[in-house]
From TrEMBL:
MF terms (GO), sorted A to Z: ATP binding; ATP hydrolysis activity
Sequence ranges assigned to domain ABC transporter in this UniProt record: 2-230
Keywords, alphabetical: ATP-binding, Cell inner membrane, Cell membrane, Membrane, Nucleotide-binding, Translocase, Transport
Organism: Pontivivens nitratireducens
Protein name: ATP-binding cassette domain-containing protein
Pfam families: ABC_tran
InterPro entries xref list: AAA+_ATPase, ABC_SmlMolc_Importer, ABC_transporter-like_ATP-bd, ABC_transporter-like_CS, P-loop_NTPase
Length: 231
């Protein structure tokens, strides 16, 4: 469960306000117009942007002032997720050990994560020798190995074609269920919410609204949501 209590999140001159709870485990899609503050919400939760008012919590634990590296959160962006000079295996291993000194048990966990994300045979390649979809699989494998209870996806699969995008979404869904993750997923495709989400949060003009169930969101959208959906 993720809590935003009277929170004001700052991105330069732009503020996002959020006073809501995201139930977990489960998947909550985050939608809204461009520039409304969706990325700001995720970046503040990950500890990369300041909370200037209120508090943030994960499973009841206050994380407002916890350093980003120590938050119970993994993040996956659309790009810039991988280190160009490191192999696939090393990029994934960073999820467990920043110094890459893995025990044999940890090396086995890395192999398992690579297998689950369909990366067998690509272990020794550098990111430049991978397709966009393969690169996102590597980033996802690393995020999964971090084994944090909250996974934040910011348009992570936006650059992928429809088939691969769906495949990645279903992979996230199966891992989220298996590991009891709470996933917040920014997407410009409301259909993504129908594919894997339980809830949908609308962010409009710097205000994050409490999540609705997917059924409520599409069946009885509030006026701002209806305008966004073009209904
Ligand atoms: N580094 C920055 N400094 C100042 N303002 C910024 C910065 N980054 C973003 N903003 C502004 O903050 C607002 C919210 O941006 P944010 O990226 O959170 O929106 P978004 O909903 O994720 O948009 P998109 O869907 O286009 O990615 C925008 O008005 C944007 O111009």
């Amino acid at each position: 469960m993720i809590g935003f209590e009277g929170a004001v999140l700052r991105n330069g001159a732009f503020d996002v306000r959020a006073d809501l709870t995201v139930e977990g485990p489960g998947i909550c899609a985050v939608v809204g117009p461009s520039g409304s503050g969706k990325s700001t919400l995720l970046l503040a939760l990950a500890g990369f942007l300041p909370v200037v008012q209120g508090r943030l919590s994960v499973d009841g634990r206050d994380i407002t002032h916890v350093a980003s590296a120590r938050r119970p959160v993994s993040v996956l962006f659309q790009d810039h997720n991988l280190f160009a000079h490191l192999s696939v295996t090393d990029n994934v291993s960073l999820g467990l050990r920043p110094d890459l000194r893995l025990s044999s048990d940890q090396a086995a966990q890395v192999r398992d994560a690579l297998h689950r994300t369909g990366l067998d045979g690509l272990q020794g390649r550098k990111p430049a020798a991978l397709s966009g979809g393969q690169q996102q699989r590597v980033a996802l494998a690393r995020a999964l190995l971090r084994d944090r209870p909250v996974l934040l996806l910011d348009e992570a699969f936006g650059a992928l074609g429809p088939g691969l995008r769906r495949e990645m979404l279903l992979l996230v869904q199966s891992v989220a269920i298996e590991r009891n993750l709470t996933v917040l997923m920014v997407t410009h495709e409301p259909e993504d919410a129908r594919t894997i989400a339980d809830h949908v949060m609308f962010v409009g003009e710097g205000q994050a609204h409490p999540p609705l169930t997917v059924t409520e969101f599409f069946a009885e959208p509030p006026p701002a949501v209806a305008a966004y959906l073009g209904l």
